[in-house]
Fold:
Amino acid sequence: MQNNKSDVLIIGAGGAGLVAALHAHENGMKVRVLTKEYPTRSQTCMAQGGINAALGNAGEDATESHVQNTLKSANGLASEVEIRRLCENAPEAVAWLDSIGVCFSRTKDSKIAQRALGGASASRACYAQDYTGLKILHTLYDRCLACGIEILNEKFLLEVLKNGNKACGVEVLDIRSGVKEVYSAKAVILATGGYSRVYAKNSTNATASTGDGIAIALKAGAKVSDMEFVQFHPTGLKSSSILISESARGAGGYLLNSKGERFIDELKPRDIVSRAINDEMLKGEEIFLDIRHLGEAFIDAQLPQERKLAKLYENVDPVHDLIPVKAVAHYTMGGIDVNDTTSTCVDGLFACGECANHSVHGANRLGGNSLLELVVFGKLAGESAALYAQDKSYLHVEVMSKEEATKEIQVDFYKVREELGELFYKDVGIVRDKKTLEKTLEKVNSFLEQTSQMGVKDTSHVYNTNRIEFLEFQNTLAVSKMILLGAIARDESRGAHFRSDKPQKDENYSKHTLQDLQGVL
Ligand SMILES: Cc1cc2nc3c(=O)[nH]c(=O)nc-3n(C[C@H](O)[C@H](O)[C@H](O)COP(=O)(O)OP(=O)(O)OC[C@H]3O[C@@H](n4cnc5c(N)ncnc54)[C@H](O)[C@@H]3O)c2cc1C
Structure:
């Protein structure tokens, strides 16, 4: 193996990881990025709608409106200071992306084009057709390669290694060879994405969004916060959960029930629209997105991916047909608890992107604010890790992990994974109540006990996907317990966390739910 030391080691090559890498590199650090897939398969590539910045290119807008919209959506559960940092840095973040080559769509007078997304008082989302995340990620990847940043693919994070309370490296599994490897570093940044895949196929997310970094950070002694806040997106395709972007509603698309009636203002925040869909479905209605009136020319120019996805995965052509949709798990507001420098409570361990809680989304994220978070807080994480690493030396790295013993497999984890996903969608979804949450927790505890009877049937080393999926499943299970503990502890309703037994907001809960491995703190 090549020299395994780097000043700053980043786990995850999505938008957050690559932005952090570029900024740590710019601060003179030797940077290495490890990722379990290829960078271009990261979740970030799936982002369609856009990235928010109050540029005012599509009508009047102001940074203060962006701040106020974000505060309102966060519902008393975010830091105003951090929201101001997010929104005030937004124009610069978009200008930076533009300067490194992201090909944003343009207005007739060559300004960056902007469109409306839910919960925003202005057309604020800057976009590249409906391929915004893909264009951003490809450009970041290109920049990293041009800067000589080393990106190693197919390395699965197993553990953050510590010396005392200081992070000093990681242990990973090389997926190609099946061999474990150790990388040491002065500072480690986790940028491993969210945990919506707890909901299995009822999620818009890439299969890799299994909350690995969060489960592993917890084991390393970090804390997590607000894990109960999972955002449901109103328009996942009915059969596959693949996302039809909010930009379709932003452009004027309608939501209809089986009677052809509109039942909600489509541009309300996602928690409200998703609950309205849930209510309709409980009455036996099917839900459809209707964009036929936007016309073929507009759809092909502005929403080409949505048309392709609807044709391919739902067998309908949105130019002529209604699109069957349902609300599905989409974004996770909770994550690794970080301070205002993106540092966790473990020295030298930082986190950014969807795996972290930067206290900007609170109870409900606004569409377009996540890509923005990757750029603003990815930069901060790169700079903070560089500052931390600057005067540190490499610490001794001790690996405690033991070889797994061969055992008889009595429980098929694939079946449990599917059961968990269905259970969460039904009982820890858009509407929850304490009794059902407690029952689900009992079930999850019993799954956790049974993990000793689960395992990997495939004993090969090279590209053993059975082994990787088992590791991911265990991380998902750990994260699912955190979601439940948070949802039970939060005895109120707020944003994406709606408890039918406590339907009102309670000011006593206007604070983050903080947890460590032992439980809610
Ligand atoms: C369909 C869809 C559309 C969206 N559209 C928008 C939008 O228009 N605007 C917006 O603001 N937001 C949007 N979002 C949200 C946004 O895309 C994500 O929040 C964001 O891209 C997350 O970026 P990230 O860098 O934190 O994580 P990711 O892009 O998920 O990257 C995580 C990285 O970590 C790696 N990784 C994970 N686990 C391990 C492990 N164990 N070992 C090693 N590496 C690991 C992965 O391989 C990957 O490289 C959308 C989300 C979805 C699902």
